[in-house]
Structure formats: C-alpha cells, structure tokens
C-alpha cells in the first residue's frame, strides 16, 4: 500500500492491523515507511482516535498542535484527537513510523476495569507536557518494547490476543501517568456512572452518525441539559459532540473514497451529508484537502497519510 504525498515523497504502509469489537473500530496498529520530500501543508491531518507514535528509524521533523520537534530513532510521541500533526522530511530523508491509533472507548469497553486517569495524558496536561517522551527517561525504552509486543500480538493472533493488546496499551498509559509528570494532579478520577453514560452516547453516535443527530437527542440520552452535556462529552473525548460526529462522517467518507469508485455525491450522501458543497467544505476542514484531491492522491489500496 503506497501513496505519493508530493512530486518527490511517498508514504507506504508496511503493516496495518485493526482490532474491532462488535464490528466497531477500536485500535489500529500501522507501520509506515516514508521517503522523500514531505511538507506539513500537504500531510497534516487530525482524526477521531488518540495516537501513540514511535520513530523506528530515520530522521525528520514533527509538527504537532503548534509545536515542532526534530525526530530520530526511538522517539515516542503522544497526540490527542484534536491536534493537527504531520511529519516533514527533506528529499534525501527516509523514516519508518510505528503508529497506534485507538478510540477513547477502547479503554471504556469494560467499565469495571476503567479509571478516568488512563486518558489524562491526552486531556489533562500540565505546563510541563511534551508530545515527545523524554528519551533519557529509562521508562521510554519500556514503552518502546511494549510497542513491539503489541505488534507481535497483532501478528501472531494467538488466543485472546485482543485482551493482550488492551493490557499492553493500558500498561503504556499507566507508565505515561506514573513516570513523566505530564498530567495535572488536581483532577479527581471519573465515576463509573459517568462512563456508562458516555459509552451509551458514543454507541448511539457510532450506530447512527450517517443520520441526522441533534445535540438535544444526545443530551436526552445522558439526561442532561445540552450546555452541560457538551462540556461533559468534551471532557471524555477531547472534542464537542458535533466535531465527533463530523470526524466520524469524514473518516467514513475517506474509507469509501479509498475502496470504491462512487461519485463524490454518492459518497457524501452515504456519509451523512445532504449536499456536495457542505461535504466538500467539511472534508477540507478536517483533512486539509478536497475529496477529489484526496481521491487523486490515493491508489486503490492507499491509506491516510502520516
């Protein structure tokens, strides 16, 4: 799987694995091989999932949420679902990037084992926070090892590998909280009752996001007034309900564009948009390019750029 990012640069998937529960996307493990010139303006993007990113080899420049980092082998990055990010490279550079995408509700899927602090490094950051983990911290090497073990679990698919992926991912999240000092310490843990509510709401959205969904509909499910519900939802997902729905629709549309030859109108309608004009506007807002440009940048088996 490969795609051209410019006249001189290419992004190729070496490996891509997805773990779903009950047909829903929860966690994705991808290895990208990047080569040649890449400009931020061409490759920056956001997505509904949270991201852990590790540079396996090579060098480049990472721009994440307004911050910039020179990157090298072994660097590990934390990226939430609202931060625009992209890897820049010079013409002569190449790089291998290992990426773990996961939705917050992957952690919620068994509420009796959930503690709100698992996601604090994404949503409750202090002033010392850095997207790049301290390479001098010995725990960073342990996190690199867990990246590899998660890849091994996906590759081997032994019995109960899904549980092992979750255990190892939670292990990484606990290490991030315990050993890096990136999280505000004055936040109380989330309550299981709140988690049950947010899970019910996200299940509703994930089953109906191509349909018309109002803030009032979602607030009613949570038994809250719309204003409070919006704040409540953002605390767990890092974005407003409307932004969450939009990104679900755009992700759905991107999959259609990659996998089918349907017209832009057909894809817009199947993805929850009433007009091509609105679809084009919202698609560009999220991805930085029009649906047509995105399609032209893909080959039949292409994937989103890193």
Automatic annotation (TrEMBL):
Keyword terms of this UniProt record: DNA-binding, Transcription, Transcription regulation
Residues forming coiled coils: none
Origin superkingdom: Bacteria
Pfam families: AraC_binding (PF02311), HTH_18 (PF12833)
Residue ranges of every copy of the HTH araC/xylS-type domain listed in the record: 199-297
GO MF term set: DNA-binding transcription factor activity; sequence-specific DNA binding
SMART domains: HTH_ARAC
InterPro entries named among the record's database cross-references: AraC-bd (IPR003313), Homeodomain-like_sf (IPR009057), HTH-like (IPR037923), HTH_AraC (IPR018060), HTH_AraC-typ_CS (IPR018062), RmlC-like_jellyroll (IPR014710), Tscrpt_reg_AraC-type_HTH (IPR020449)
Species, as recorded: Anaerotalea alkaliphila
Protein name (Swiss-Prot/TrEMBL): AraC family transcriptional regulator
